[in-house]
Write a structure and sequence with these properties.
alpha/beta, six-stranded parallel beta sheet, Rossmann fold, 8 strands, Dehydroquinate synthase-like, alpha domain, 49% helix
Length: 391
């Protein structure tokens, strides 16, 4: 196990009706004038936005609204939010939604406190030094942005999808009410579950040795997702299934399952170009890319993949030929994703083989990084694996 510092200061407020206490937590973290940032019409249609506004009104907290965040959040909305905050003296951002809304809110919080273009933090190695405080009311279990130090934004000019991160942008608090996820369509539930599993697997597939404690934590989260995702899809009002998935999403990405070990994250980088170019759901893109990446890299450490296959996917260990066990685990992963309604190849997300050179050209992959360092030829082969993937 490697040396590590673990810092996760977000206050998580979990359970039924917890969104009714929003104003108390904004005051606790010194918010006096709030930008309420949200996504699509669902926050309005469900009545959640009205409940948020009522809580703020009753507490006499001033606020302004900025909705319209899209999946794969755009830089144009971030610029709009920065201007609103600066012109109106906003000192706190409340994100009502999922990972896209939270990522957009984090970007706004960075930009308000920066004299230059906020995109500098996403396109260069510039470090974040200041940001407005953020709170979250989570409506989908997926990205884990409610507890993470990271944010991903798409620049509309060129549709470049890039990330940045700092402990400074971790939310001050996150309201986690599993009831708020019950109206999600099955497809969104499955996309979120895929994202959660990918966050765990990016940490699990590692070159770091002797990490049994985090191996077992990763495996527990994956087993939970395998059990609860089909149950939540079949019974969308099942509070306990939704609760387990929601907390899994948080612990999958606040790094409690990743400390002391090197992660990979090449799958995420490769996928970002898919969702950037085709505007598909991030979870759907990961369902296509991650098993295809695994097929490319698994021979680098067959026993790690065999361990995953046995402990998580219930494969029987083939001691004479562990490579068969390792490969079977990858196929069971892909089959599971298909069983919950996820795409598994290019065709199913509207991606085109002829666009692979463009995807590679836009790629943020750096040679020498990850479980297996990838060059452009390697990325090409992973995309081709995704073109040809089948059950």
């Amino acid at each position: 196990m490697n040396n590590f510092n673990f810092y996760s200061p977000t206050e998580f407020v979990f359970g039924r009706k917890t969104e009714n206490s929003i104003a108390d937590y904004i005051k606790k973290y010194n918010g006096t004038k709030v930008l309420v940032h949200y996504g699509s019409k669902s926050a309005v249609k469900s009545g959640l936005l009205d409940r948020v506004k009522k809580s703020l009104d009753n507490a006499e907290i001033d606020y302004m609204l900025l909705g319209g965040v899209l999946p794969n959040p755009r830089d144009t909305k971030v610029y709009e939010g920065i201007n609103i905050c600066r012109e109106n003296g906003i000192d706190f951002i409340l994100c009502v939604g999922g990972g896209s809304v939270i990522d957009s809110g984090k970007a706004i919080s960075i930009g308000v406190e920066y004299d230059g273009d906020f995109w500098d933090f996403y396109s260069t190695d510039k470090k974040i030094e200041k940001a407005l405080p953020i709170g979250v009311v989570l409506t989908i279990a997926a990205a884990g942005s409610e507890g993470s130090d990271s944010t991903v934004i798409t620049k509309e000019d060129g549709m470049l999808k890039r990330s940045t991160g700092s402990d400074i942008i971790r939310p001050k608090f996150a309201i986690l009410n599993p009831e708020l996820t019950m109206t999600l369509p099955a497809y969104q539930t499955a996309c979120g579950a895929t994202d959660i599993m990918a966050h765990v697997l990016e940490r699990y597939i590692t070159n770091t040795k002797e990490v049994e404690i985090t191996d077992r934590l990763c495996e527990a989260v994956l087993l939970t997702m395998i059990k609860e995702t089909p149950r939540a899809i079949k019974e969308p009002d099942n509070y306990h299934a939704r609760a387990n998935i929601m907390w899994a999403g948080t612990v999958a990405h606040n790094d409690i399952v990743g400390v002391g070990r090197e992660g990979d994250w090449n799958s995420h980088t490769i996928e970002h170009e898919l969702s950037g170019l085709y505007d598909c759901a991030h979870g759907a893109g990961l369902a296509v890319i991650m098993p295809s990446w695994m097929e490319f890299v698994y021979k680098h450490d067959i026993m790690r993949f065999a361990q995953l296959a046995v402990r998580v996917w219930g494969c029987e260990m083939n001691f004479q030929n562990p490579e068969l066990t390792a490969y079977e685990g990858i196929q069971r992963f892909r089959h599971f994703l298909s069983s919950i309604g996820m795409p598994i190849n290019f065709e199913q997300i509207g991606a085109k083989k002829e666009d692979i050179p463009l995807l590679i050209e836009k790629q943020g992959i750096s040679d020498g990084w990850g479980f297996v360092p990838l060059d452009k030829d390697a990325v090409y082969q992973i995309y081709m694996n995704a073109v040809n993937a089948k059950i």
